[in-house]
Design brief:
It is built from two helices and 36 strands. The chain is mostly beta strands and 417 residues long. The strands form nine sheets. The protein has a five-stranded mixed beta sheet with strand order 1-22-21-20-19, with no helix packed on it. A four-stranded antiparallel beta sheet has the order 2-29-28-27, with no helix packed on it. The chain starts with a strand and ends with a strand.
């Protein structure tokens, strides 16, 4: 039985710990030309646009090879799924490995009317959606690049379908259309051919990682579905938004997506479930890291498997949008950040604690500020008898900033049980 939890959207700015951050070397790139959406990006900062290759280091797109019509997805190995011209100049689906394009084999030939969506990180699987035909309708497909098996993921239980993403196990996600209502329902396409509807509400499943975590939208809310626990976690749309969707999830669980406001405006979001808090506007995250995020809007479309790079594009259709990319950098160990920051020696006890922490410091502490691990300030108060009460806080890890009367500061990590 599926377990379902619901999280109210709590809008906040991800505050910094006096200039420090849990990510290092954060960078933001915006492409100035129209029609340059970043449709995928890998752990090396290499990505693809509509028909070309993106490099985060240079913030530039290089045109694809002669004869390449479309580039759709790229994995960490640099394998690419796309559309090329065959020897007769006809379009055909293909995969590039080690710099060599190889057409997909089988009885069905992919063409310009078909949608090519994703290639797995191990390069074994590619997925997409066939263009509508009288004979087949319009269904998702999966292709095994090793066995050259092409499978249409159709079912008499549904009307149509599409596959948007696939993991290394050959588990694909997307949607199927209800026969009676015509509603698109977020779904899982299993390797044995079975189809699992995640939620019967209108929506889609947009991404899956190699840990079996799936993200998407249903009934206007974003969701994360865990296949191993059959747990569905949903997230309210931000205030003023008509829809909220997660589009991609990294192997370490960082999620990206976007909220839709009216017909033409979208804003990108980022969310790390390990912090047990709400999603954050990507522009606020960047600005709190002292990055100018002017002009950042649209959809956060992809995140690399290691969670270090995000690719997306501005408002409007992708074919006319400006691409942008974010490098989150390596996640810092909170204790390492603390050691670099402290102006004087400090400790506290007990740690872990259930209620009160008492400070042991070489200097007199006047006040404290306590933050959770995404930078929210949860306590700010003067010190009484060298102690502070934190019984009201949820269990978790917190960063405590101690401040002397002369303004000197030191920070330490506290575990609240």
């Amino acid at each position: 039985m599926m377990k379902k939890t619901h999280i109210k959207f709590l809008f906040f700015f991800a505050l910094l710990l006096s200039g420090t951050t849990l990510f290092s070397q954060v960078q933001f790139n915006m492409l100035s030309d129209y029609g340059t959406p970043i449709m995928d990006i890998n752990s090396s900062g290499q990505g693809i646009s509509l028909c070309g290759y993106y490099d985060f280091a240079t913030n530039a797109i290089t045109a694809a090879e002669t004869g390449v019509i479309r580039t759709s997805s790229m994995n960490d190995n640099g394998d690419v799924f796309g559309l090329i011209e065959d020897s007769n100049g006809n379009p055909i689906g293909a995969v590039r490995k080690n710099g060599i394009w190889t057409p997909l084999a089988g009885t069905i030939t992919l063409g310009e009317e078909d949608e090519l969506y994703d290639i797995s990180e191990n390069g074994k699987w590619v997925v997409g959606q066939l263009g509508w035909t009288m004979e087949l309708g319009s269904w998702g497909f999966i292709y095994n690049t090793e066995t050259q098996e092409f499978r249409i993921m159709n079912s008499s239980l549904y009307q149509y379908g599409a596959a948007y993403a696939v993991n290394n196990q050959g588990i694909a996600v997307g949607w199927v259309e209800d026969l009676n209502t015509g509603a698109r329902m977020p779904s899982i396409f299993m390797p044995d051919g079975s189809i699992v509807v995640i939620d019967p509400s209108e929506g889609v499943a947009g991404g899956i990682n190699n840990e079996g975590k799936i993200v998407g939208s249903a009934d206007g809310e974003a969701f994360i579905y865990d296949m191993s626990t059959q747990t569905l976690e949903t997230f309210d749309a931000p205030q003023g938004a008509v829809e909220f969707a997660f589009s991609c999830i990294s192997d370490n669980g960082i999620v990206v997506g976007f909220a839709t406001y009216g017909m033409f405006t979208r804003l990108p979001f980022i969310y790390n479930p390990e912090t047990d808090t709400a999603p954050v506007l990507l522009s606020d995250f960047l600005e709190d890291n002292e990055i100018d995020a002017t002009g950042l809007d649209g959809a956060a479309y992809k995140i690399s498997s290691d969670g270090n790079y995000i690719g997306g594009f501005s408002n409007g259709p992708a074919s006319g949008a400006n691409g942008w990319a974010v490098k989150l950098g390596e996640s810092e160990d909170p204790e390492d950040a603390v050691e670099e920051y402290n102006a004087f020696a400090i400790s506290c006890y007990p740690n872990p604690t259930q209620d009160i922490i008492t400070f042991n410091s070489e200097k007199m502490i006047q006040s404290v500020e306590i933050y959770n691990l995404v930078g929210q300030k949860v306590i700010s108060q003067d010190i009484i008898n060298g102690s502070v009460q934190i019984a009201q806080l949820p269990a978790g890890v917190y960063m405590v900033k101690a401040i002397t009367e002369t303004g000197e500061m030191a920070t330490l990590k506290v575990v609240k049980q």
